[in-house]
Amino acid sequence: MNDALNERWGILYCPKKGHNKSRKRWQRLQRELDARGVHYDFVQSESVDGVERLMTMLIHNGYKTIVVVGGDFALNDAVNCLMREERQVRDQVALGVIPNGVLNDFARYWGFDEDNDAQTVEWLMKHRVRKVDLGCLRYNDKNGVGQHRYFLNCVNIGLTADIMNLRKQARRRLGSRKLAFISSLVLMVFHRHDYRMRLRVNYEEIDRNVMTVCVGNARGYGQTPSAVPYNGLLDVSVVYNPRVKQLIGGLWLLVTGRFLNHQSVHPYRTRELVADTGKAIIGIDGRLSEKPVGEYRLTVEQEVVNFLIPD
Asked: pTM, whole model, 2 decimals?
């Protein structure tokens, strides 16, 4: 049985919430898997709690290749579940992704395309493994209890976290990625905010009003475009509150991949960021987090997860 599981995939399917085409999506993917002779067992999650429960089940049942069919949210749950295991257990597991979420930024970083399942399955079958880094947010909750949460892509603090949450809701309602993106840009223009933040990065102290901060282990939805999840470092973009014309210019640079060129963006590369961001909203891999109480830390753990990457 164990030898069979070494070759058999455990597939964790996470349908898009509120999406009425999930069955057709799985049937299309199933045809690609069956046509290539992939041996797999399939489980489907219907909730956030379901992802962690099913991921734990797959790990404890001995699957060595676990493929998440989902987006950044589902991947985040999967890696946090994996990191609860002893190192000798997680070192035997290779994690793969077939993009199927509202946000698929980490999958896109590697070149996986939601509209090209055939190519994705072929890449995963080659079982090319790379150990990747994880960022980690460590904080105290409202009860003073120490907590931590890992992230593959990024942590957003401030306006961008708020906008990304609105974009996710708009995508669910509008059903269109482009319309949701446009609506979020409009909201960013007309709902500008700044937050008093205290940041410590590379011995530099920042104590001022800040619009948004992105701490990226990968590209961070375009805000940390030079970040890579295998160098043991985090990229940090601190954005001060620009004027309206500068903000519009910054949005254009974000869309065209030149975000760091904007004069209001101050980039850093570091192993640790210490922050106290008050009432600012925090998003981890695109999902809202509970607010830390007081000072918290963002660090990186190098080469801790086996991830299946393309050729």
From this structure: 0.86
